[in-house]
Specification:
alpha+beta, 60s Ribosomal Protein L30, Chain: A, Phosphoribosyl-aminoimidazole Synthetase, Chain A, domain 2, 2 domains, 7-stranded mixed β-sheet, 4-stranded mixed β-sheet, 8 helices, 11 strands
């Protein structure tokens, strides 16, 4: 498909929100109604997906992974622009159909982008959102003594193909941002073992992970080391939050979602990343998360 035909086909599939100028001009135009957060996420053939994966699922993953960053801020999605670098062997329109459907599922308008040919399929999605409550949650607001909690079970996403179907946790993220005793948050894309230290460092803390307490997703094979898979596999796109330890019982009782929050660790007043081993000893963390290499 020629680039001009691809752009025309994409344009026919989207509708600009009222008062917004979208695809067709050199820039999109929208008027923010308040403080805005913006993120960009890129997925690359051979690193984040296989050449044999369905084009529509690849597009869905590109949109879902980007939207998950907005969910981690407690934001409400507003708009997106996409840069698509697509080889002739890929069905670029099928990729975009999957991407557009995922954006639409979360009320996020596609307002522009760019297309070009390439040797490998690369999709870069820029998304922006606005506050759904009084504040955005960042990684840097936590303190030593806070608990680390996750919004769902982890592990097994690559083996099962679930990594192609991210589920941005918008409702959970917005609810958590409304709770004053939730102090920091991020999404889990590289695995708990890799991402928890990022939140801890941003908050000026170290962290202690409790692998035996981490909920293991049913996609992890029964014969596998479930705790290690849950901590290291990555591409789960659940939320990791730091909460006041004193308010943890209240948070559990107030939590309105069917999948229970799980405590997976603590923030420490010393630098470094540690884990509790099977004998209950605190040892340096030796596990690593998912590497996009």
């Amino acid at each position: 498909m020629k680039e001009s035909d691809l752009i025309a086909a994409i344009r026919s599939r989207v509708t600009d929100p009222s008062g917004v100028i979208g695809i067709g001009d050199d820039c999109c135009v929208w008027t923010p109604s308040g403080q805005t957060c913006l993120s960009v996420d890129t997925i690359v053939e051979g690193r984040h997906f296989r050449a044999s994966d369905e084009p529509g699922l690849v597009g869905r993953k590109a949109a879902g992974a980007a939207l998950s960053d907005l969910a981690a801020m407690g934001a409400r999605p507003i708009g997106a622009v996409v840069a698509l670098s697509c080889p002739a062997r890929w069905d670029g329109l099928a990729v975009m159909d999957g991407l557009i459907a995922e954006l639409r599922r979360h009320g996020c308008a596609l307002l522009g982008g760019d297309t070009t040919g390439s040797e490998a399929l690369v999709i870069s999605v820029t998304v922006w959102g606005e506050r759904a409550s009084a504040r955005f949650l960042t990684r840097s607001g936590a303190a030593a003594g806070d608990l680390l909690v996750v919004t769902g079970p982890l592990g097994g996403s690559l083996r099962s193909g679930r990594h192609l179907r991210p589920q941005p946790r918008f409702a959970e993220g917005q609810w958590l941002a409304d709770q004053p005793y939730v102090r920091a948050m991020m999404d889990l894309s590289d695995g708990l073992a890799a991402d928890a230290p990022k939140l801890a460092e941003a908050s000026g803390c170290g962290c202690l992970l409790l692998p035996q307490d981490v909920p293991v997703h049913p996609d992890v094979p029964e014969m596998a080391d479930g705790a290690k898979a849950a901590c290291c596999d990555g591409e789960d796109f659940e939320l990791l939050a730091a909460v006041s330890a004193e308010q943890w019982p209240h948070l559990q009782l107030a939590w309105p979602f069917p999948r229970q929050l799980a405590r997976v660790g603590w923030l420490l007043d010393r630098p470094g990343t540690f884990m509790e081993d099977r004998q209950g000893r605190v040892v340096p963390m030796t596990w690593t998360g998912f590497e996009h290499a």
